[in-house]
Write a structure and sequence with these properties.
With about 550 residues, the chain is of the alpha+beta class. It is globular. The protein contains 14 helices and 33 strands. Helix 2 crosses helix 10 and helix 11 packs across helix 12. The site of guanosine-5'-diphosphate has 16 residues, from helix 2.
Length: about 550
């Protein structure tokens, strides 16, 4: 996309999507092939290298690697058919699901990879739920057709049930496993013939028009007729393709293929350009003089704005800086621009601003809505922060989930208190863990959604802040953020439960629970208090 063209043109040419799957379905392989065939990287294998420790001996090794991965290439940009495509990877481990939810707030669509033998698996199901809540359009890729897998009709049926929306097949497989013959493109009415191997460029696969039925039958025998029959059943049972329904998250286009064999990949890349949506308007919500002021911000307006959806400490322990990943919501970012953090009203002075071209980080030249840029800073930015060129805007919607697991932090060497506090503050801001400071004093509480988060934090406190800590169990089993309509109502409540009150890293007030009944009882006693299981950054 030539620079200098209008904002509207730039926005129209942008696609930002997240790739989601259950581990081992083939996400890494597909990512690599998408990058390869868009022309973003020259050498296949470079994406693979970064997940070498998949089957590492301990969970710990795996997370450490994941952290490395997420820094190196959680965001990749490719150029394809005059479009700028931003691909956002999502962490594989379920204990980091919160990160994934936040990534999903930064994209306009999702690509769901399914293993054709396993169908929709546990982790995919959770991710789908989040997409559904946000009405994120989903493109489905059914992978591993070169294996002995389930019947395509059966898979479609399951996807429909799990997604709660109809599938519209875009391609259809002929055979599978050893007799996998290829895919029929329902639009072009032509069959692309499968050949195994990872050397072939997608455009080199042989294509035969369906009108040459005789030749196809001669070559693929009964598999071809069976495919035609099931294809007809599938198209008969599914609604006609409706682009608007897809954009509203009410239909998913389905593609079949084999990532490792480069097969069916180009169809997905084309779908991202042809079907996936460009960035959409976002709503800024602010409270001014106790009034809610809403403003719909168009992606192609001049005002630069964006949201921090991820904060990552530098992997290199010698550099204490952090990268704030910002999804651009509107306007154009250009180097040297003055930036304001809405929450504090302060100017953000990044030491560098980078973009993510496949594996490399490069100084950003310009960025438009849909792009992801990384601000390297020494602080002053938190997850969920809105950053603008000075305009007064506030986006909400970055979710924090009420922790389900709690530990107290005990410092082994009391002289390291300052380091501990700094470490916890920074890890809290990154969203690696939630940190609660009890109002009544006492040890800091760590709250997590997944157990591994504790391990990461304990390790990082030691490695990065030289604070050796012990984590101890405590009586809390949950938390709810609380608000009330009047300060008086809130005070009555906090006065009743002084020992249960805590403030989190964003200084939001929370009520700590010791059993599932807690909230119910408190709610019954105090009907005017609102208990929130989810906090959206405001
Ligand atoms: P991820 O965990 O979802 O990122 O999955 P990977 O991309 O690492 O793939 C998991 C395993 O499945 C690897 O051994 C891949 O080589 C293999 N794989 C990926 N795609 C295919 C495919 O289309 N066919 C076959 N047979 N194996 C595949």
């Amino acid at each position: 996309m030539a620079s200098g063209s209008s904002y509207a043109q730039q926005v129209r040419a942008r696609r930002s999507f997240a790739i989601i799957s259950h581990p081992d379905a083939g996400k890494t392989t597909l990512t690599e092939k998408l990058l390869l065939f868009s022309g973003a990287i020259q050498i296949a294998g470079s994406v693979k290298a970064r997940k070498a420790s998949r089957h590492a001996t301990s969970d710990w090794m795996e997370i450490e690697k994941q952290r490395g991965i997420s820094v190196a290439s959680s965001v990749m940009q490719m150029l394809y058919r005059d479009h700028v495509i931003n691909l956002l990877d999502t962490p594989g481990h379920k204990d980091f699901s919160e990160d994934t939810y936040r990534v999903l707030t930064a994209v306009d669509s999702a690509l769901m990879v399914i293993d054709a033998a396993n169908g929709v698996e546990a982790q995919t199901r959770r991710l789908i739920e989040v997409c559904r809540q946000r009405d994120t359009p989903i493109i489905t890729f059914v992978n591993k057709m070169d294996r002995e897998v389930r019947e395509p009709l059966d898979i479609l049926d399951e996807v429909e049930r799990e997604l709660g929306m109809p599938c519209v097949p875009m391609t259809w497989p002929v055979g599978q496993g050893k007799s996998f013959g290829g895919i029929i493109n329902l639009r072009t009415r032509a069959m692309t013939v499968f050949e195994a191997g990872s050397e072939r460029r997608p455009q080199d696969f042989e294509t035969i028009a369906l009108t040459e039925a005789g030749a196809l039958r001669a070559r693929f025998g009964s598999e071809f007729d069976a495919a035609l029959e099931s294809m007809e059943l599938a198209t008969g049972a599914s609604p006609a393709w409706d682009h608007e329904a897809f954009l509203a998250g009410r239909q998913t286009p389905v593609f079949f293929g084999s990532g490792v064999n480069n097969f069916g990949v180009m169809e997905v890349l084309d779908a991202l350009v042809d079907l996936a949506p460009p960035p959409r308007p976002r709503v800024s919500t602010m409270t001014v003089n106790r009034q809610t002021v809403e403003r719909t911000v168009q992606p192609d307006e001049e005002t630069f704005s964006g949201v921090v959806f991820k904060v990552q400490a530098n992997m290199d322990a010698n550099h204490r800086d952090r990268i704030a990943f910002v999804r651009v919501a509107s306007g154009r970012y250009a180097p040297g621009m003055k930036l304001k953090v809405q929450r504090t009203g302060k100017e953000l002075r990044p030491t560098s601003v980078v973009t993510f071209m496949s594996q490399r980080r490069e100084a950003v030249e310009e960025a438009y809505a849909g792009d992801i840029i990384g601000f390297t800073t020494h602080g002053g930015v938190q997850l969920g922060d809105t950053i603008t060129d000075g305009a007064t805007l506030q986006y909400t919607g970055l979710p924090f989930f009420a922790p389900e697991l709690f530990m107290t932090v005990v410092l082994k060497n009391p002289l390291r208190t300052k380091q501990l506090q700094q470490g916890l503050a920074q890890l809290g801001e990154e969203g690696a863990i939630q940190v609660f400071k009890p109002d009544a004093g006492g040890a800091m509480l760590l709250g997590a959604v997944g157990q591994l988060q504790f391990e990461v934090v304990q390790h990082r406190l030691k490695a990065e802040y030289d604070a050796d800590v012990r984590l101890e169990g405590c009586q809390y089993t949950g938390a709810r953020w609380i608000t009330a309509d009047t300060p008086q109502d809130l005070r009555t409540f906090t006065d009743t439960y002084p020992l249960r009150m805590a403030h989190d890293a964003a200084n939001a007030l929370a009520y700590l629970c010791t059993s599932p009944y807690d909230v119910r009882l408190a709610q019954e006693r105090f009907p005017k208090i609102h208990f929130h299981p989810l906090r959206e950054h405001a």
